[in-house]
Amino acid sequence: MEILKIYIAFFKIGALAFGGGYAMLPYIRTTLVNQNHWVTASKLNSYIGLVQISPGPFTTNLSAYVGFKTAGILGGLAAIIGISTVPFILVSIAYCLFSKMQNAKTWQNALKGMKPAIIALIFSALISVSGSDVFHIREIIITIIGAYLLLYKKIQPLYIILIAAVLGIVFYI
Questions:
Q1: What's the first-to-final CA gap in the chain, in angstroms?
Q2: Is the entire prediction scored with pTM above 0.70?
Q3: How does DSSP classify residue 39?
Q4: Range of 40's domain?
Q5: Mind listing the pLDDT tens digit for each residue in 123-168?
């Protein structure tokens, strides 16, 4: 029964949370921590850090890890299948529609309208993961350095996380 519960929870996340992994975090946090109590907020933050360095899609890795920690291998599989079901169906439908209307002005305008909403979702995830830490000068410095290295120097995220870890050690000695 736990496997089915995991599938349904991650199915809902896949169906209702849009905008990519980080934009989905507030809803994922609510589902995993507050509703199902599968992990604590602190453990979820640790899991997020762990899956950051894993290859592959963030939400799929996070789902697999939480599912595995909750109910073993079958729990991990149930979580992956659950979170992937609705997006798979929607992408298949979108492909059919997009190929017919990719040059339509209405479609282009809709995409322009979605961008600010996605930015707001990502900002919400930043605040959710950071808590009050985001407003401390040391965390702001690490964030700026990480963003600069990622956006302008095109350094791999794994190296940015390692650099941030070293900066955290240095800043808090």
A1: 47
A2: no
A3: S
A4: 2-130
A5: 777 777 766 555 678 888 888 899 899 889 988 888 888 999 999 8
